[in-house]
Amino acid sequence: MEFTTLGIIAMTISLSVDLPQFIRTLRTKDVESFSATWLISKIVLALSWLAYSLQENIAVMIITNLVYLMETIYLYALYIKYKIKE
Hints:
Elements: H1 5-16, H2 19-28, H3 36-56, H4 59-85
């Protein structure tokens, strides 16, 4: 497994894409505009990419997709938690 500069840059960008939404949700507890289908699709996508990166043994992709998966699962947990309170 090898880390390249381009891989690290791509990993950083990939993980920062949803960060504003993640922070906003934690701060406001507003999940009204969220779709459960959207969140589940993101989880399936992360699992698919994780499976591929594990199969190909691509370290940067494994780390990126593990973090992305955890972030998305946590966002889904917040969605469930705050949706129930409504």
